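Q: What would this chain look like folded?
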Amino acid sequence: MVRPPMPPLYFFLIDVSLSSIRNGMLKVAAETIKSSLDKLPGFPRTQIGFLTFDSALHFYNLKSSLTQPQMMVVADLDDPFVPLPDDLLVNLSDSRHVVEALLDSLPSMFEENTNIESAFGPALKAAFMVMSQLGGKLLIFQSTLPSLGFGRLKLRGDDPRIYGTDKEHTIRIAEDPFYKQMAADLTKYQIAVNLYAFSDRYTDIASLGTLAKYTGGEVYYYPSFHANLYKEKFSHELARDLTRETAWEAVMRIRCGKGVRFTTYHGHFMLRSSDLLALPAVDCDKAFAMQLTLEDTLMTTQTVYFQVALLYTSSSGERRIRVHTMAVPVVTDLGEMYRNADTGAIICLLSRLAIEKTLSHKLEEARHVIQLRIVRSLQEYRNLFAVQHRLSGRLIYPESLKLLPLYGLALCKSLALRGGFADAHIDERSAAGFNMMIIPIKKLLKLLYPSLSRLDEYLLKGEDDGKASLQRLVLSAERLDPRGAFLYDDGFRFVLWLGKVLPAEFVKNLLGVEAANSPDLSKLPVIEQNNELSRKLLATLKTLRERDPAFYQHCYLLRQGEQPREGSLLLFNLVEDQIAGTSGYVEWLLQIQRQVQQK
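A: My prediction, written as structure tokens:
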């Protein structure tokens, strides 16, 4: 790196069109940013800036000598320009009072705005021009499909006629090359993009998410967002993004010893050379996957070494290199290699390969590849032991891979890969795909096979040690007792399922009178009632959330038989069941068993 270490820099690009005002996004964003200012890393070097947009671009002069911020409007979308050379990006400690004044006034400034247009492309270009001298993190808050200027997107939506055809994958990739080119420019100047998308209509996450994909960022998607219901989730995740320790202007290289080499890399980054990953900003909530190949068919060494080196700038301005080195023994017995296999790592890689496959092929083909790879791995293992075990029709596998078929099925049924046109909204599918490309193994396994627990019996127990020790159940509708309440937790959301014959008094104590009497629970938040049962529920949810602070699980309330919500929120995710034409776990195992036996 030839330039001096960059300061931590946060630039906020905020959609202030009508939908952002109506759903309350702007107010929650402004409040959360203000409450996080003291915790932004890098004090006193931290830099900050803002740009809002609808059909025009609004820049803000935050010079420390001002008492109030000055807004400058640029209406030229064909050739956007920066109206002020300095003071659009300022040192937070110097201009704190001006920044706070802006955040206090933003919601009221646009509360009467009826503009429905979105000049997102020109706004993105302008933000790039402001940030290109220093780099940093660009946080985008978007509620509307980009409709004006370059980068505007069509309402291409989700066409059922192209599913099953060779064009199916086109709805899952960026429509306009503008977005990938912008991502390349942003990465070159050390700018990472995190996208927060809020629309309940089609927003083309496939195109917008490209900005995060190639800059080391992530996509936060809040369908049907309304501040009354989802404020805590959005506020928690934004605050986490702003305050977690970040490595800036980073590059990562993975080296390996003689005889092996890495062939492919999977995650959110820009590949700068054959083995150098450009990461304008990276943090502890990201993970990367790689595939390796053997260069020598017969390896003579007894140990192979792997080394990951991350060169980055810390928030305090230090240049650092973080190095992880691992020595792995080379074995001659293939059976020993199988016995030490890591199911989590395998599924993590398979999931990323499958999601990348959906960007050029049909969903069905991506699911087929998952099954094929599992079958091949179990075929090889079977061949090792077929003679000595005199196997007839049994499916055999090492203890280390006993859950591989189950996670493989869960992967095929995941939101990013399951079914076809009718099985997932295209924006939700795209957002799920971006998410699965970056989350760590533990988080991915929880997402694929969530926990399901009986809640009413647990809450009614007298003793309470302050820890949530819920008993996990098999993911099958057979376990859902109409007399009970059950909690589903996939690490990103809770679903609280209430059986048909659950006593009304229990529901009233747990969730309040309105929940006990209302036929529609979709608009009701979970709030504390004045009784021990409710307090214990809230404490349990809080404990579960604290186990992994990367995301906040919003709690959806669901009554048995409430369609279509029961299907989309819960039943489709009970992966061991046959539902909507998909295989159950038993049928899936039989399919794999038959294919393993075929030679």
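The longest strand covers residues 303-313.
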